[in-house]
Design goal:
The protein has 273 residues and is of the alpha+beta class. The protein contains 8 helices and 10 strands. The protein has 2 domains: 86 residues, no CATH class; 108 residues, Hypothetical Protein Tm841, Chain: A,domain 3 (2-Layer Sandwich). Helix 1 packs across helix 2 and helix 3 packs antiparallel against helix 4.
């Protein structure tokens, strides 16, 4: 799901739809055109993305024989994925190199607090669920609040229940599915968010959470200056394989990790005076 622009500087999103249904040559032509138009492409997709689509993405990247296409698939719920993609679109208007921008996706993931209010956890396999919670799922009217990232949490929804939130100021985005509850809005108040916005539920959310009876929420950093400061405060290096500027421990374009350190050199013998 492509969220609307956060501000006038936010770059537009390109949505790659129906990759597994299109003929291979048509999908290849589409991705090649985007690569030539923008120079580099960072594909952000959910872990709930159907496997045929993911395989097609890797096939297209291989056929293009290009290190200008990065595939980013962080362990975030679908709404968190949409927020991360918009943050990268915000940063794309800044003076960041393609490698740093792509690696920023891994960095910014740590600052996203993503969860949901669920009508059942019987089919939830993304977060540890105890036997008691499974049993309560069969009691009509029972709701659960789940934080999937950055630290898994699960509580039964009551007026006093809460989830551990971010230690910094955020906005909150809420997507309502087939569930009626004001608990997520109350959580935003307890988290002290700047404000709460609503958006349609991502199509992959029911699959990711195991139920369509949910309200998904996400706490995130919205200010471009804060995002830019976070990214530029990290030391930059050059990928030893493809030469791209990167931050962190892995190049997102070629997937190369830093080379393992070699054995320590023996001290050279001293020549007697």
């Amino acid at each position: 799901m492509a969220l609307p622009a956060q501000d006038e500087r936010t770059m537009p999103a390109v949505v790659l739809t129906g990759l597994d249904r299109k003929p291979l040559d048509e999908a290849l032509t589409e991705l090649h055109a985007h690569t030539e138009q923008y120079g580099h492409v960072v594909v952000v997709c959910s872990e709930a993305t159907p496997e045929p689509v993911v395989r097609r993405l890797y096939t297209l990247r291989s056929l293009l024989e290009s290190d200008r296409v990065a595939l980013l698939r962080p362990a975030l719920p679908p709404l968190g994925i949409a927020v991360l993609a918009r943050q990268l679109r915000q940063l794309a208007s800044c003076d960041l190199s393609p490698g740093v921008l792509a690696c920023a996706g891994r960095l910014l993931t740590h600052y996203i607090h993503a969860g949901a209010v669920l009508g059942s956890v019987a089919r939830l396999d993304r977060v540890p669920v105890g036997l008691k919670a499974h049993a309560r799922s069969w009691v009509p009217g029972t709701q659960f609040a789940v934080l999937a990232h950055p630290e898994p949490q699960l509580v039964k929804v009551t007026p006093e229940a809460t989830l551990k939130g971010p230690e910094f100021s955020t906005w909150m985005l809420v997507s309502k599915g087939q569930l009626q509850s004001d608990w997520a809005a109350g959580l935003g108040t307890r988290w002290g968010v700047h404000g709460l916005r609503e958006t349609p539920l991502p199509a992959e959310s029911p699959l990711w959470w195991g139920t369509g009876r949910l309200i998904e929420f996400c706490g995130y950093l919205a200010d471009l200056s804060v995002l830019y400061q976070l990214v530029t405060s990290v030391r930059r290096t050059s990928c030893h394989w493809c030469g791209t500027d990167v931050i962190g421990d892995r190049c997102v374009f070629c997937s190369a990790a830093p080379p393992a350190p070699g054995p320590p050199r023996a001290p050279e013998p001293r020549t007697p005076a």
